[in-house]
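Deliverable D2.4 — example input (C-alpha cells):
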C-alpha cells in the first residue's frame, strides 16, 4: 500500500471541512451586514477575511497535490495562477485532472479577490462584489468538492498500485 496517497486524501477531506466552515462564516457575516447597518462595515470585513481564508484553504490543497503527486509546485510571480491551471491538467501516466476547467475558471475570481484582500485597505471593498462572491460560493464549492471526490477515488486506486493483483 502506498500510504501517502491515503493520507493525502484524508488531509484533503479535512481541509475541505475547514473551507466549508469559512464559507459558512462568510455567508453568516454577510447576512449580519444586511441586518445591522450600524456595524455593516465590520461584518463586511469579516466576509472578506473569510473569503480570503476559503481560497487559502483551497490553494493549500492544490499545493499538497502538486507536491505529493506531481512532484512540482510552480514558482515565480504568477505561481498562484499557474498552480490553479496545473490542477486542470491531465498528466499522462501520472494522474487525471484534479479539477475541471470550469471549476478553475470559477475559482479564478476568488484567487483575484484574495489578492485584493492582501493588497487593499478594507474600506475599498465593494459590498456588491462581496455579495456576488458569497452568493456564488455554494455552487463553486459543490463543483470543487465533486472534482476532489473524483480525484480522491484516483488516490484510493493509486494507493494500492504496489499490491499484487489477485485473481
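Example output (designed residues):
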Amino acid at each position: 500500500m502506498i500510504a501517502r496517497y491515503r493520507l493525502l486524501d484524508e488531509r484533503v477531506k479535512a481541509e475541505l471541512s475547514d473551507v466549508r466552515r469559512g464559507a459558512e462564516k462568510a455567508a453568516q457575516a454577510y447576512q449580519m451586514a444586511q441586518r445591522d447597518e450600524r456595524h455593516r462595515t465590520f461584518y463586511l470585513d469579516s466576509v472578506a477575511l473569510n473569503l480570503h481564508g476559503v481560497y487559502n484553504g483551497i490553494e493549500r490543497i492544490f499545493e499538497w497535490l502538486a507536491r505529493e503527486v506531481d512532484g512540482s509546485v510552480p514558482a515565480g510571480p504568477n505561481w498562484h495562477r499557474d498552480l490553479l491551471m496545473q490542477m486542470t491538467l491531465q498528466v499522462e501516466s501520472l494522474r487525471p485532472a484534479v479539477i475541471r476547467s470550469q471549476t478553475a475558471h470559477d475559482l479564478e475570481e476568488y484567487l483575484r479577490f484574495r489578492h485584493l484582500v492582501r493588497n487593499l485597505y478594507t474600506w475599498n471593498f465593494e459590498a456588491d462584489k462581496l455579495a456576488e462572491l458569497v452568493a456564488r460560493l455554494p455552487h463553486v464549492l459543490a463543483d470543487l468538492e465533486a472534482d476532489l471526490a473524483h480525484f480522491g477515488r484516483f488516490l484510493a486506486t493509486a494507493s494500492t498500485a504496489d499490491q499484487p493483483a489477485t485473481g
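The mean pLDDT is 92.
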